[in-house]
TrEMBL record:
It comes from Teichococcus wenyumeiae. Coiled coil: none annotated. This is Creatininase family protein. Belongs to the creatininase superfamily. The keyword Metal-binding applies. Keywords: Hydrolase, Metal-binding, Zinc. GO terms for biological process: riboflavin biosynthetic process. Its cofactor is Zn(2+). One of its GO terms (molecular function) is metal ion binding. InterPro entries: Creatininase-like_sf, Creatininase/forma_Hydrolase. Pfam families: Creatininase.
Length: 233
């Protein structure tokens, strides 16, 4: 249930009967031939599809995250850690004031993962709150399904190429891209990283059959739904 379809009175009543909510977080960054908004598109969609049968509200996706390594690619927007933590802190406080005590943060971008420490700090100040950080694409069942489909899966490769992240009229390259020098990339500046990486795909083929992708998506939605519905104190 997207909050865009609710008014404040309905939200107040919702929080009173069920204090769960979902906050998707993503990123705006290079994804080779896919949309710059791939991470935010996927995080918001998997959260909305997972939460809909449960009647749990899903807030608009936070479209910007931490992407310093891709700063040399036009269109990439990166927040500093201090900025990102401050923004998330304000959002969490707003959700808390609105009556929500069980919050699932559905993350679509690996670079956002360091905020786990900040979430723990925030929970230390809110004894009656609970928060789950759910990295949807690497949750155990979803990641297993990805690896069963093709172990050569990486950033901006086939594993992020869904009908809703693909750009019309932009064909994907044929063949399999060799693995980039990821170890070297980790120790150089963004300009050199772009020289090493090229189009942005880390390694693997660029596109697989939609039937395979939808099978992965079904697992991801179910696993995200389980994170929202289960294992709360």
């Amino acid at each position: 249930m997207r909050v865009a379809a609710m008014n404040w009175m309905e939200m107040e009543a919702q929080a009173a009967r069920d204090d769960r909510c979902v906050l998707p977080i993503g990123s705006t960054e290079q994804h080779a031939y896919l949309s710059l908004c791939t991470d935010m598109i996927l995080a918001e969609r998997v959260a909305a599809e997972a939460a809909e049968p449960l009647g749990v509200p899903v807030f608009p996706v936070l479209p910007y995250g931490m992407v310093p390594g891709f700063a040399a690619y036009p269109g990439t927007v990166s927040l500093r850690m201090t900025t990102y933590a401050a923004v998330l802190g304000d959002i969490l406080e707003s959700l808390y004031r609105g009556g929500f005590r069980r919050i699932v943060v559905v993350n679509g971008h690996g670079g956002n993962s360091p905020v786990a420490g900040f979430f723990t700090e925030w929970l230390g100040q809110r004894a009656d709150a609970q928060l789950k950080l759910h990295d949807w694409w690497r949750a155990p069942l979803t990641l297993e399904k990805v690896r069963q489909t093709d172990p050569e899966a990486s950033h901006a490769s086939w594993m992020e190429n869904f009908p809703w992240t693909r750009l019309p009229g932009r064909p994907q390259p044929e063949g399999i891209k060799p693995r980039a020098a990821l170890e070297r990339m980790a120790r150089v500046n963004p300009a050199i990283r772009r020289e090493i990486l090229g189009d942005g795909n880390f390694h693997g083929c660029y596109q697989r059959e939609d039937a395979e992708m939808l099978a992965i998506w079904d697992v991801a939605v179910a696993e995200t739904r389980a994170a929202i519905s289960g294992d709360w104190d």
